[in-house]
Design a protein that fits this description.
Layout lengths: L1 E6 L3 H12 L5 E4 L2 H11 L1 E7 L8 H11 L4 E6 L6 H7 L3 E4 L4 H20 L1
Parallel strand pairs: 1-2, 1-3, 3-4, 4-5
Helix pairs in contact: 2-3
Length: 126
Amino acid sequence: MMDVLVVDSESGFRRLVRRWVETQGLDAVDAETATEALAIAARLIPKVIVCDVHLARGEDGWWVAREVQRLFPRTVVIMTTAQHQFDVERGRLIGVTTFLIKPFSPEQFLAALHAALIEHAARRKT
């Protein structure tokens, strides 16, 4: 099991978020596409996935969240977007509880990450 998988089409964003995760003493890997993300998740079973709604190729972030919740129900998904709105209801039906609108600060991200890790620990107890 690994700590965090970052899924985003933008390599600079993935590197930035990975760096923030690593400052917390956690390990992180990243993926550019939904297919790559699901393959990594199947191999490493992350505690948390940080996933953008809009991915450049193939399936979108909602697909990733839906598949992850189906296959790995203890993994917590944090959805991100550069748009000013989320389809929060759609996310909640999938099982997503945390949504971040880009650009967000390191403090906002780390607060969401720590809450997700607490949620993951609670899911492991059930």
